[in-house]
Design a protein that fits this description.
The complex is a heterodimer. Chain A is built from two helices and no strands. Chain A is mostly helical. The two termini of chain B are 37 Å apart. Classes of the chains: A mainly alpha, B mainly alpha.
Chain lengths: 56, 552
């Protein structure tokens, strides 16, 4: 199999580009998915709760 | 400290220590005249000291199950103390080498005291000794609170903390003996690298095992950052340190890579060490301690997620900006430059998230030096990441590379961001861990803050001036087309800035000593209400509204 410089450059410039775009879309969708809002709001406040013992 | 170990854990501890001692013995015997023998002896002595410590508590009564209703904070406490010891030591060595650049005779006539050996002692002590211990200690604390689960056992956290410090000691003593594989920030040789790998895998396992026991279905974002730090450092460490030792009795090894591949692997490692050790880990700290200290939830949780994935995926490709104008293919250099520029977005999102969290609590920032440490850290984080993106541009890099500008950039990040967020977090956590109302002296926290800020600013400005002058002098041509200045000319021009830098470093070191003293006195002194203002009083309970009085 030819894994020369040319092949690697082609792979980086094609797959690398679309992989990054796909990741950006997935991340943004996850962050802005409406039903996730409640989870995130809860998480953000969770560190401020007045409870200093483990549940197990 | 280790009194909470159960009978079985004490037995396992003895077994592990005997195993480590045996490894030390084998290294010592195999090494013959190699300096590796001294490290074999050091490992043996460390294991023996551990055996004595465990035997001394071996017949103590076992802890009762009541302990399981509380978080396990003993390793965190010890880790904070170790971090402060490394901070003072590492800053001292750093300032020493800074003075050495002002006056080259300012050292002993011995190999271990030469600049080339002391400089990695400084970087390892502050980055891995101070930063690493602070990360391990705070990560145990944050992991338990955000998961609402106690650490899964009591032995492995100690194994990680003490094993990690053994690695740091091997590294630092090795440099002084001339043991190094000459890779910046990855200097320790093969046997120390293998040991760190074992420790690191156990560290990651602690994280996964605790998260598996968590109560909250969602994993709080600080843990994402801490986990990225642990996981990626493991990957970087393994790949960059692939090497073949000359023999099992020799400290020397040869890298699997050579030429430009070696350079690329090293800077892929090197810049990601900045990204995942000095950025992701400390962002984990920031996302927990800034909201908790300010008593306000993080400004935008969504933004913290987007910046997390941005930082994680962009940083991986940025390392090649260290190799502009080298034998590295041009497109790889351009790739590194482009990703470095894109990094500005998630980096500024993180800095803005911290500052916007404080928006509405500026009165607390004014009165509370601990919170101010964290605010200044976020500002420096914003400045340094902007500067980093800028320096990665190839044409800017042609001026800045190999000059003190790089040194200034690193210290803006290390002093301004990493150390400031760590001191802020430590001042928050110490009174809680030792069940005190507040730090021993809020006024000394204030003193430390101003010394640290003044030291960092003096340092960074000195290096900006020095670096740009250096860069300009090295590229100035005269009418006949030859260089206008010799290298020595540029050295003479640096001198005033080197003096300023050493003074800035001294201020930062004094601040660190004041901080260590204050923490030590907080631990030693029982809680009492001091007559001075309670500007540093932490919330008595986690998340309660802070009652702050105006500062002096």
């Amino acid at each position: 199999m030819d894994l020369g410089h040319g092949t690697l450059v082609w792979f980086s410039k094609s797959f690398g580009l679309f992989y990054l775009i796909a990741l950006s879309i997935i991340t943004a969708a996850y962050a802005y998915w409406p039903s996730n809002k409640k989870v995130f709001d809860h998480a953000a406040k969770s560190v401020l709760r007045n409870e200093d013992e483990p549940w197990r | 400290m280790i009194g909470q170990l159960t009978k079985a854990e004490r037995q396992y501890a003895l077994l592990i220590l005997l195993g480590i001692g045996l490894c030390g013995l084998i290294l010592g015997i195999a090494s013959k005249d190699d300096p590796l023998g001294i490290h074999g002896a050091l490992i043996g002595i460390a294991a023996l000291a551990g055996v004595f410590k465990v035997i001394s508590i071996y017949y103590d009564p076992e802890p009762d199950d009541e302990r399981l209703t509380r978080y396990y904070d003993d390793p965190t406490k010890f880790g904070i103390i170790l971090a402060m010891i490394w901070a003072v030591f590492g800053l001292f060595i750093g300032d020493w080498v800074a003075w050495l650049l002002v006056k080259p005779d300012f050292t002993f006539d011995a190999g271990w005291a030469s600049f080339g050996r002391l400089r990695p002692v400084h970087t390892t002590s502050v980055l891995f000794g101070f930063g690493g211990n602070a990360l391990i200690a705070t990560s145990y604390y944050v992991l338990q609170r955000t998961s609402r689960a106690r650490l899964p056992d009591q032995l492995s956290p100690w194994f990680v903390l003490l094993g990690y410090n053994l690695f740091c000691v091997l590294a630092v003593t090795g440099y002084m003996m001339g043991i190094t594989q000459s890779k910046e920030y990855a200097e320790p040789e093969w046997y120390a690298d293998i040991w760190l790998l074992v420790v690191w895998v156990v560290y990651f396992a602690i994280y996964l095992r605790t998260l598996a026991r968590r109560k909250e279905p969602h994993i709080y974002v600080a843990n994402w950052y801490y986990m990225a730090f642990i996981l990626v450092i493991a990957i970087l460490h393994i790949v960059n340190n692939l090497a073949v030792p000359v023999s099992f009795g020799s400290a020397k090894s040869y890298s699997l890579f050579s030429g430009v591949q070696d350079a690329m692997t090293e800077w892929w490692y090197g810049h990601n060490a900045v990204a995942f050790f000095l950025t992701a880990g400390f962002l984990g700290m920031m996302y927990y301690f800034v909201p908790v200290r300010a008593g306000r939830p993080i400004y935008s949780y969504r933004m913290s997620i987007i910046s997390f994935w941005g930082i994680t995926f962009f940083y991986m490709w940025a390392g090649s900006h260290h190799l502009h104008y080298t034998a590295l293919p041009q497109w790889v250099q351009t790739l590194g430059m482009t990703f470095s520029l894109m990094l500005l977005i998630p980096s500024w999102a993180s800095a803005a998230n911290a500052l916007l969290t404080l928006n509405g609590a500026w009165d607390k920032v004014r009165d509370d030096a601990t919170l101010r440490f964290m605010m200044v850290a976020a500002v420096f984080y914003g400045i340094t990441t902007f500067e980093g993106s800028f320096l990665a541009i190839r044409s800017v890099n042609s001026l800045s590379h190999y000059t003190d500008w790089t040194v200034g950039h690193v210290h803006a990040g290390a002093l301004g961001w990493v150390a400031m967020i760590t001191f802020g977090s430590i001042y928050t956590i110490v009174p809680w861990l030792w069940k005190r109302d507040r730090m021993y002296s809020p006024r000394l926290v204030e003193v430390h803050f101003w010394l640290a800020l003044a030291g960092a600013v003096v340092y960074v400005f000195a290096m900006w001036n020095s670096g740009i002058i250096q860069g300009l002098m090295w590229r100035t041509y005269n009418e006949s087309g030859t260089l206008a200045y010799s290298f020595v000319d540029s050295l003479i021009a640096m001198r005033p800035y080197y003096i300023a830098r050493a003074i800035g470093g001294l201020l930062f070191l004094i601040g660190g000593i004041v901080g260590a003293y204050n923490i030590w006195m907080t631990i030693k002194t029982e809680s009492k209400v001091l007559p001075e203002s309670g500007a540093d009083a932490p919330e008595p309970v986690l998340g309660g509204e802070a009652v702050l009085q105006p500062g002096e």
